[in-house]
Amino acid sequence: MDTIFFNTSSSTIEMRIFSMQCLVEITRCYYDYLEDQMATILEKTLLHMENDDEKVGIQAYELWCSLSDEENARIKEKEQKISDVNVFNFSQIAYPNLLKMIIFHLLNRKKVEGDEWNITKAAASLISNLSQCCLYEFIEQVVLFVGERLNDPDPKIRDSCILAFTSLLESRYRENIREMILNAFDSLLAMMNDTSKEVRESTAWCIEKICEFHSVILVKDQVKFGKLFTTILNNLNRGKKAGVHLCNSLHFIAKSVRVDDNKTSKYYLNLDCLSNYLNDTLSVLLNIALDQNSYDTENNLALAAFFAIGSLLENSAMDTKKSVEDFFSVILSAFDKTLQNGAFSSNEVRNDYQNYLASIIEASLVSEKIHLDFNQGKIVLNMIISSFKLRDCVYEEGLLAASSISLGMVYFKKGMNELFTELVKDFGQYLTYALQRPNEVSLCRIAVHSTSDLIRAIGTNFSIYMDQILPLIFNILRVYFLFY
C-alpha cells in the first residue's frame, strides 16, 4: 500500500491515474482489510479531487463510489439477514469531508458538458451512492444546498442543483425522499421553463427518475398528476434530449398506475388518472413520432415517443377502448405509408419506422381492446406480409405483430380459423424463414412463439403443416443442445 500511495504523487498524470485505479480495485476486493488505511485513503483522494488533473480526480471519486457500493450491499445483506458481514461505515465517517468536495465541484463547473463524463457527474454519482449508505442527515445537507442555490443566476449552478437533487432519488429513505419530492414538486416543474436548454434537459431527466421510482405518490394526488401531465405534454417537443426523458416518464407512469382488478382479472387504471389524458397524449406523441425530424441516432425522440405510446396502449384501462380503437386505425394508416415509395429519406429510416409501428400494432392487440373481424385481421396481416416482401426478410417486430393478430380476433373464433387457414400458406414462408435461423436467437424465439399462437388459433387445421414445421423445431432443439 505504501508503494501505491507513493505513486499517487508521481510527477506523471498517467502514473497517478494508474495508482488511483489500483486503489479503486483494492477497495472493491479487500474491504475487510482497509480499516487501518482509510485515513490515508481519505487524505489522498481529497487531495486529488481538489488539486489534481480532472482524470485523476474522477478516479478518486470512483474509489468512494466503489467503496460506498460495497457498504450499501453489506448493509442490505445485514438488514435481510443474509449474512453477518462487517460494515465499518467508512462512507458515513468520511461524508462530511466528501460532501464539501462534492459541493465544490458542483459550484465550480467550467461549462455544462452534455453527456460527457466529467468530475461534476462523478461527484453527483457519489451523492447517489452516499444517499444509500449514509444516515439521512447527509440527504438533508444536500437538499439544503439545492434549496439555497436552485435559483442561482448561473445556469451551470442551477443545473448542478438539479443533478444533485436527482442523485438522491434512489436513496433507501424512500418515504423521506417522497416527502421531499412533494415539497419541491412545483419548483421542479417550473424549471422546465428555464432559459437554459441544459437545465431543462436535466430537469426532464429528474422528472423521468421521479416517474420511475416514485410515481405512485403523484397518482394519488390528482392535482399534482394533472400538473405533471400538462408539463410533460407542453415540453415534449422542446428539444430531443429533454423530449426523450419526458417520453420515458410517460412509459414509467403507464407501468406504475396499472392495477389488477380481481373481479374481472383485467388490468384497469384509476379512471380519474391516466384515462382522462390518453387521447391528448397519444395525439401529441404520434405527431412527434411521425415527424422524421424527431428521428436521430443519438437522441431518438421518434423511438422514445413510440415506446411511450406502446406502454400507454398496453397498460391503459378498459374505459379507453374506444380511444384505442380510433388510434389503431391511425396507426394502420401510418404503417401503410411505410409501404409506399419515397416516403422516407432512406430505406434504413423506413425500416426503423416499420419496426416502431409494428410494435405499436402488437401493443394495441395485446391490450385486448382491439377486436378484429375477418376482413380487418386479413388487412393487418397482409400489411405485415407486404413489409416482409418489401424488405426481403423477416424482422422481429413484424413477426410479433403478425402473431398478436390472433389475440385481436379472440372474440371471432370462427373468423380467426378462416383467416389463418387462408393466409398461413403465404405467411408460412416467412415463419419458416425465421425458424430456419436458430443462430438468430431472438428472431427464432419469436418464430417458435408465433408457431404456438398459430396452432392455438387454427387448431386441427394446422395438422397439414406439421410435416413442414416439426423438422424445423427439432433442428432448433438440436442446435441449442449442441451450442448452448
Q: Please give the alpha-carbon distance between the first and last residues.
A: 44 Å
The CATH level-2 architecture of the domain at 1-169 is identified as Alpha Horseshoe
Return Rg in Å: 27 Å
For this structure, what is the CATH class of the domain at 1-169? Answer: Mainly Alpha
- Using DSSP, what is the number of strands? 2
Average pLDDT confidence is 88
Shape: globular
Helix content: over 70%
The helix-and-strand class reads: mainly alpha
Provide key terms for this protein.
484 residues; mainly alpha; 2 strands; 1% strand; globular
Task: Give an overview of the whole structure.
With about 475 residues, this protein is mostly helical. The chain is about 70% helix and about 0% strand. The protein has helices spanning about 1-5, 15-30, 40-50, 55-80, 90-105, 120-135, 135-150, 155-165, 175-190, 195-220, 220-235, 240-255, 280-290, 300-315, 320-335, 345-365, 375-390, 395-410, 415-435, 440-460, 465-484, and strands spanning about 260, 265-270. It has a two-stranded antiparallel ribbon. The chain is globular, with a radius of gyration of 27 Å.
Record the SSE blueprint.
Layout (H helix, E strand, L loop, with lengths): L1 H6 L5 H17 L8 H14 L2 H26 L10 H18 L11 H15 L2 H14 L5 H13 L6 H17 L6 H23 L2 H14 L4 H17 L2 E3 L4 E3 L9 H13 L10 H15 L5 H17 L9 H20 L7 H18 L4 H13 L4 H23 L5 H18 L7 H18 L1
